[in-house]
Amino acid sequence: MDFEHGFTLWRDLGMTGGEGARPIPFPALIAIHWVHRFFAIVAAAVLAWFAWRACAYPATRSGGFWLASLLVVQLLTGMSNVVFQWPLLLAVMHNGGAAAMIALAVSLNYRAWPQVPQREVGASASAVSVRAAE
Ligand code: HEM
Fold first, then answer.
1. Cα–Cα dist 110/60, whole Å
2. What is the per-residue pLDDT across 25-47, written as a single tens digit (0 to 9) for each?
3. Does 29 contact ligand 1 (Cβ within 6 A)?
4. Is residue 91 over pLDDT 70?
5. Distance CA 26, CA 17 (A)
6. Does the C-beta of 92 come closer than 6 Å to ligand 1?
7. Is 12 in contact with 21 (CB distance < 8 Å)?
8. Cβ(1) – ligand 1 distance below 6 Å
9. Sequence spans of domains, the chain
10. Å from CA of 33 to ligand 1 middle
11. Does residue 82 have its Cβ closer than 6 Å to ligand 1?
């Protein structure tokens, strides 16, 4: 894996950066994609936990269910992209799925906010532990 070329930020798409730009070497694409899959596991774990927590409250339960479903579809479209060699429809569905999960996470955060007792808003961490003890 070639992380140096893969993670040179200022470069033309598909090209190396700096003087004498040339097509980006394949090991650089491997490095980019390995990092994508590694953090996909991290993102999936956080999103799964978020969906599970959202299912605990009536106001966010359906959103939590949809987030969990979108996550499963996202992982499937991601893996299918690799297995079926990036058919455009799957690549677009995968990009769209990521955007849909962001939109759902924002709306879940918005709907979750009224659930937090206002007296705790701005209160110190000890207030949170008080609530956990109740
Ligand atoms: C929570 C999990 C994931 C999220 C949020 C996610 C998000 C994304 C996004 C936003 C892109 C577009 C990147 C770009 O256009 O520059 C992308 C591309 C891609 N992802 Fe994922 N991904 C996830 C999991 C996975 C997994 C598990 C795999 C494969 C095992 C995968 C394979 C791919 C592939 C092959 C592409 C390139 C598709 C293309 O050509 O547009 N992804 N992913």
1. 10
2. 999 999 999 999 999 999 999 99
3. no
4. yes
5. 15
6. no
7. yes
8. no
9. 3-133
10. 8
11. yes
pTM of the entire structure?
0.81
Task: Enter the tokens of residue 39.
Answer: 């953090």
Give me 35's structure tokens: 């990092």
Q: Where are the alpha helices (DSSP H) in the chain?
A: 3-6, 26-54, 58-83, 88-112, 125-133
Ligand 1 pocket member 91 (CB < 6 A): yes
Q: Residue 120 belongs to what H/E stretch?
A: none
Which DSSP letter does residue 119 get?
G
Strand partners, 15: 23
Contact indicator for 7, 31 with CB cutoff of 8 Å: yes
Contact 6, 32 (CB under 8 A): yes
Residue 70 has pLDDT above 60, yes or no: yes
